[in-house]
Automatic annotation (TrEMBL):
Protein name, as recorded: Heme exporter protein C
InterPro entries, sorted: Cyt_c_assembly, Cyt_c_biogenesis_CcmC, Cyt_c_biogenesis_CcsA/CcmC
Transmembrane regions listed in the UniProt entry: 12-34, 54-74, 86-107, 119-141, 148-169, 196-214
Name of the coding gene: ccmC
The family this protein is said to belong to: Belongs to the CcmC/CycZ/HelC family.
Entry membrane topology: Multi-pass membrane protein
Subcellular location: Membrane
């Protein structure tokens, strides 16, 4: 059976790679050198410029997966299942980054690395558990089509968890020590806002680059499995 695989020109990959590297390096150095330091927290406050952009991306991933899963339900094309899986993969990686960077910031701000009464921290932990459950159940189902159907339903659960995590500090009356939305009025000087938005741009570029690479890898693995089954 003849298969046509669309390949992206290597120059595009190289250009995108350098754009991602450049924006990340600039974002890191700007976050270290440019914004003023909050005296109560010291230099550890600079983890904020990594923590917040990474958290945003971690919340976008399950929502993208949910959209891809809905399209899969409509079209029954495994392409959309693969895209949903890729989005959840990266969401889990970035969510783990949030769980590691959050305690560093929390310790400097609150004096404890993990506040069990904080709604945002607990909801993010639940999001990680939801994503982990998605991967476990997906791995346990051998049939490719059944795997896609189950994964699509689980993507809904992960998306709901992401929305609840986003709303934890907005909808709960006493959400804990976690600060409110960074997009609220006041609260940040111009140098902090500029640095934060630069970080948001850089980590979104990173997400997109990893998304393309991961999806390409999944596609190659599926082609290998298909060819192997046909040869056997």
């Amino acid at each position: 059976m003849e298969r046509k695989i669309k390949l992206i020109h290597p120059a595009i990959d190289i250009i995108f790679y350098f754009v991602v590297c450049f924006t990340l390096v600039v974002a890191v150095f700007v976050s270290i050198l440019y914004p003023n330091v909050i005296l109560e927290q010291g230099l550890s406050h600079r983890i904020f410029y990594l923590h917040v952009p990474v958290a945003w991306v971690a919340l976008y991933g399950p929502l993208l997966s949910f959209v891809f899963s809905l399209i899969y339900f409509l079209k029954k094309d495994l392409l959309w299942d693969r895209l949903a899986f890729t989005a959840n993969q990266l969401a889990f990686v970035f969510a783990i980054g949030v769980l590691f960077s959050g305690p560093i910031w929390a310790y400097s701000a609150w004096g404890v690395p993990w506040d069990k009464t904080d709604a945002r921290l607990q909801s993010f932990f639940i999001l990680c558990i939801s994503l982990l459950s998605y991967f476990i159940f997906r791995y346990l189902v051998p049939s490719r089509k059944k795997k896609a159907i189950l994964s699509a339903y689980l993507s809904v659960l992960c998306a709901v968890s992401a929305v609840l995590t986003w709303g934890a500090i907005r909808w709960i009356e006493n959400p804990g020590n976690h600060p409110g939305s960074v997009l609220g009025k006041g609260g940040m000087d111009s140098d902090m806002k500029q640095t934060m938005w630069l970080g948001v741009l850089a980590y979104h570029f990173l997400f997109l680059f990893l998304f393309l690479l991961s999806n390409r890898n999944e596609k190659i693995q599926e082609l290998k499995n298909t060819l192997r089954s046909e040869l056997n």
